[in-house]
């Protein structure tokens, strides 16, 4: 059986939409919702929700963050396979079945196809259309793996309690553990709630800083190159993007904020 792990924080409407879409999925699965400090009526909705699939929800004190919430959901899951998918990621038809079929072989980490609504393309949010998946593509949006493998590598690192870092850190450890990463073109999900008008640039700065922390944690230069936070790459970005970011549209602002966040993290670590 497959366990869908859904962390959520004060996004009741999106969560309800996701759960309604899961109601029409085929396959054997359960859903574990982890409500992290919700104050918007989410808990009241979950306590009354009666879906056609096995379902449970956990209530956590606020501030645990995505990594900690996903770990709690994984601990409560009863399925052999964990499928991590955030509350703003909407599964399309055949999503569950595609992830289940991917695990006919052992030690598979399956990364599904991630798309954006048309109005969000080019805003800085990432899409993943394949045809291959790499360790840095492992995210809490659309990734499944055996529960035993997740536990073997220690799950998510709760030290990444802010925005960013927890996904590539897990992906890197899975790669080092010999996991087989596969891309699932049939496991399509749509990422609906990327906030490019609000906190997107601040989140980009936080992600840049967090990815520097991933490199410093493991000390492998491949991490810095893959995540775009190597000092050589940062020097090039910070020299060119202020003048040419307009050529990239909204993506240019996102990339510059990401580079500034990573550069600040390097400067702070050097000073200490």
From TrEMBL:
GO terms for molecular function: hyaluronan synthase activity. The keyword Transferase applies. The keyword Transferase applies. Residues 130-182 form the Galactosyltransferase C-terminal domain. Keywords: Glycosyltransferase, Transferase. Its EC number is 2.4.1.212. InterPro entries: Galactosyl_T_C, Glyco_trans_2-like, Glycosyltransf_2, Nucleotide-diphossugar_trans. Pfam families: Glyco_transf_7C (PF02709), Glycos_transf_2 (PF00535). Signal peptide: none annotated. Residues 3-117 form the Glycosyltransferase 2-like domain. It comes from the Bacteria. This is Hyaluronan synthase. The gene is hyaD.
